[in-house]
Automatic annotation (TrEMBL):
GO terms for cellular component: cytosol. The keyword Lipid metabolism applies. Belongs to the diphosphomevalonate decarboxylase family. Residues 10-159 form the Diphosphomevalonate decarboxylase-like N-terminal domain. One of its GO terms (biological process) is isopentenyl diphosphate biosynthetic process, mevalonate pathway. Gene3D superfamilies: 3.30.230.10, GHMP kinase, C-terminal domain (3.30.70.890). Residues 177-285 form the Mvd1 C-terminal domain. The keyword Aminoacyl-tRNA synthetase does not apply. Its EC number is 4.1.1.33. Keywords: ATP-binding, Lipid biosynthesis, Lipid metabolism, Lyase, Nucleotide-binding. This is diphosphomevalonate decarboxylase.
Length: 329
């Protein structure tokens, strides 16, 4: 064979209802259900080229050649595609993020979503979005959600298959997400390692398994009802519960700047501005706010010590294949 290539882009998502922990057994299925929003304005772009001349898979991430665990995870995903497509060529992966990588901004979600879609299409497979999502989820559970746009649910818990499905379109809720970037560095503990330790030693983990599905159901119902305030209220509760569970295991992702930004979110709420905070496995605070209040909230958050910059995002579309002309820019 000569070469087969495709380029895909995908966006990170933030979980409004968090998952933390994995169900025992194979398949990389979350221990609890979660519900996220896919974000426009932050993008991973990935090109996969199967080339018979390559001796092994190659990975370039943000312009740097990368091996070790990241390459191993990418190769494992490619092996599934190669097996189904009946090809044995190694692949060259070129991927870039236009936002901080491996620092709690869901770069693994958008990264594996883009990789899965590009690999499947480069191999000539006509898989459904649900099947591509399942492939991505096996590498990074949250990546399954980034194949879809808008509000997306990822099932989890006993008997779950780890399937992601659309809950509502991007326009279902008047929502802006202000991402308060507090560092450009990678986090010290990966989400995978943090979850495993939490499951082993956190005294709060059993309580988390009971509470998380209830919070997810509340958020799902509020999204479908267009109830911004309830979505924000329970999203903040979900984030704090997740981090409390992790902290009890000695896993601390938040920084002083994270807590200062959260304090400002709560101060704005006390002043009558409907703002809510959520935090993934990293130090960046995400402020949930209505579109009409975004400018005022952004101005106040920009003054918080330790907030380096603010990315203003909104619910966006799922992963897609880029036309050749667009991919080559």
């Amino acid at each position: 064979m000569s070469t087969l290539s495709a380029t895909a882009c995908a966006h990170p998502n933030i979980a409004l209802a968090k998952y933390w922990g994995k169900r025992e057994g194979e398949g990389n299925v979350p221990a609890v259900p979660s519900l996220s929003v896919t974000l426009a304005g932050m993008t991973t772009t990935t090109t996969v080229t199967f080339d018979g001349a390559l001796a092994s898979d190659e990975l370039s991430l943000n312009g740097a050649s990368t091996d070790g665990r990241p390459l191993a995870r990418a190769s494992a995903l490619l092996d599934v595609v190669r097996r189904d497509a009946g090809i044995d060529a190694r692949a060259r992966i070129v991927s870039a993020n236009d936002f901080p990588t491996a620092s709690g901004l869901a770069s693994s979600a958008s990264g594996f979503a883009a990789l899965a879609l590009a690999a499947v299409r480069a191999a000539g497979l006509d898989w459904s979005v649900t099947r591509v999502s399942d492939l991505a989820r096996r590498s990074s559970a949250s990546a399954g959600r980034s194949l879809f746009g808008g509000f997306v649910e990822l099932d989890g818990g006993d008997g779950a298959t780890g399937t992601s499905a659309s809950v509502a379109s991007p326009s279902a809720l008047d929502l802006k997400v202000l991402v308060c970037v507090t560092t450009e560095a990678a986090k010290a503990t990966s989400s995978t390692d943090g979850m495993l330790l939490t499951q082993r030693v956190s005294p709060y983990y059993p309580a988390w398994l009971q509470e998380a599905p209830r919070l997810c159901a509340k958020i799902r119902a509020a999204i479908l009802a267009g109830d911004f305030s309830t979505v924000g209220e329970y999203a903040e509760k979900s984030a704090l519960a997740m981090h409390a569970c992790a902290m009890a295991a000695g896993i601390v992702y938040v920084s002083g700047a994270t807590l200062a930004a959260l304090a400002e979110v709560r101060a704005m709420r006390a002043d009558g501005l409907q703002t809510y905070g959520t935090i993934d496995a990293g130090p960046h605070l995400k402020c949930l706010v209505r579109g009409s209040d975004a400018a005022a909230a952004k101005e106040r958050l920009a003054r918080v010590p330790g907030v380096l910059r603010i990315l203003e995002t909104s619910p966006g579309d799922g992963a897609r294949i880029l036309p050749l002309a667009e991919a080559s820019r």
